[in-house]
Amino acid sequence: MIPAKADPDKQEEYLVQTLEPRLDEARAGQRAVFFVDAAHFVLAPFLGFLWSAARLFIPAPAGRQRFNVLGALNAITHELISVTNDTYITSKEVCALLQKLADLKPGIPITLFLDNARYQKCALVIETAIRLQIELCFLPPYSPNLNLIERLWRFVKKECLYSTYYPSFGPFKAAITECLEQTHSKHKPALDTLLTLRFQRFEKTQIMGV
């Protein structure tokens, strides 16, 4: 499935004119490119697959607490820089992430690819990015397939949340944190295969009535 409002032509144009040229510079060591997005992990059942010959009841976590991770994923090294909280992601957290990236002092231009969430595409964030000399490139609307970090979020859910019961928010948060901290160690081989710079393309589709 693809988002109903996605525009394949705009995505293709963006890939060719904006995304791929900067990734070429990143491969050549001339630019640091990061993909930015927030994941909101809610303490709720994440169902996987369970086959049982008899009817079986399994526990499910109670409550709706959530662990928010605003991440910036390096397109080449797959290093993850993040800001986390248990409340909400706002422009304040985005600015804090921009400052963390600026503090890396890579010695080359920094470019971020991110979606059009209101807390990211606001005056405070844009002004902060200009001050820190960070380029913000906003993806076309409804284009999660062009945001590399979306694959990382799916990996985290599969690795430590699907079909797993956490009795309280503490162990739930700790599991996510540990998984993210191991992206450069335990999970590096799997992520190097998953986080390739090949992006899914869509052709124009005709929606037929039924």
From TrEMBL:
Keywords: Membrane, Transmembrane, Transmembrane helix
Keyword Transmembrane helix part of the UniProt annotation: yes
Transmembrane segment boundaries: 38-58
InterPro entries, A to Z: RNaseH-like_sf, RNaseH_sf, Tc1-like_DDE_dom, Transpos_IS630-like
GO molecular function list: nucleic acid binding
Top-rank lineage group of the source organism: Bacteria
Protein name: Tc1-like transposase DDE domain-containing protein
Signal peptide: none
Keyword Transmembrane helix: yes
Domain Tc1-like transposase DDE intervals: 34-168
Pfam families given in the database record: DDE_3
SUPFAM superfamilies (UniProt xref): Ribonuclease H-like
